[in-house]
């Protein structure tokens, strides 16, 4: 699956600082996956694409991702979890705690059973937590201009 992604990215040309198939927004490029993976595997696939699971740093950015996820009618993992310390939701790449959230009322739930953050389609893209080993779609991000480095 990862290889298939790499090959498809290799064949794409770069437009406006983002590869085709990557969505530009305010200095970043986002890839909304077409396949599903566990949260950990999703992070690995993003890394193989020279990117990381998306880490929205503002409510505006989070709302953009939510809106785009809604247009695709799917649930997407983000790079936020409370895996390190239960109840402390942090960005995966920096371990900084989030300063805002789009959690749906009643979320997050389930304590140690659900530790990975998702834009949940049944909640219209609001955030919820799910079991990290369950496969879902995911969003990768890379800084605009730092195009994904791919093999091939
Ligand atoms: Ca938890």
TrEMBL record:
<dbReference type="InterPro" id="IPR016187">
    <property type="entry name" value="CTDL_fold"/>
</dbReference>
<dbReference type="InterPro" id="IPR018378">
    <property type="entry name" value="C-type_lectin_CS"/>
</dbReference>
<dbReference type="InterPro" id="IPR001304">
    <property type="entry name" value="C-type_lectin-like"/>
</dbReference>
<dbReference type="InterPro" id="IPR016186">
    <property type="entry name" value="C-type_lectin-like/link_sf"/>
</dbReference>
<keyword id="KW-1015">Disulfide bond</keyword>
<dbReference type="Pfam" id="PF00059">
    <property type="entry name" value="Lectin_C"/>
</dbReference>
<keyword id="KW-0732">Signal</keyword>
<dbReference type="InterPro" id="IPR050111">
    <property type="entry name" value="C-type_lectin/snaclec_domain"/>
</dbReference>
<protein>
    <recommendedName>
        <fullName>C-type lectin domain-containing protein</fullName>
    </recommendedName>
</protein>
<feature type="domain" description="C-type lectin">
    <location>
        <begin position="25"/>
        <end position="141"/>
    </location>
</feature>
<feature type="signal peptide">
    <location>
        <begin position="1"/>
        <end position="17"/>
    </location>
</feature>
């Amino acid at each position: 699956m990862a290889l298939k992604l790499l090959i498809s990215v290799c064949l794409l040309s770069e437009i406006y600082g983002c590869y085709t198939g990557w969505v530009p927004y305010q200095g970043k490029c986002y890839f909304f996956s077409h396949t599903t993976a566990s949260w950990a595997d999703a992070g690995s696939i993003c890394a193989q694409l020279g990117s990381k699971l998306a880490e929205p740093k503002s409510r505006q950015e989070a709302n953009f991702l939510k809106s785009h996820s809604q247009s695709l009618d799917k649930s997407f993992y983000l790079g936020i979890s409370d895996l390190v310390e239960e109840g402390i939701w942090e960005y995966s790449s920096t371990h900084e705690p989030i300063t805002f959230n789009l959690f749906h009322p009643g979320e997050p739930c389930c304590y140690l059973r659900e530790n990975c953050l998702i834009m949940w389609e049944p909640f219209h893209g609001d955030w919820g937590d799910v079991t990290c080993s369950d496969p879902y779609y995911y969003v990768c991000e890379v800084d605009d201009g730092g195009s994904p480095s791919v093999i091939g």
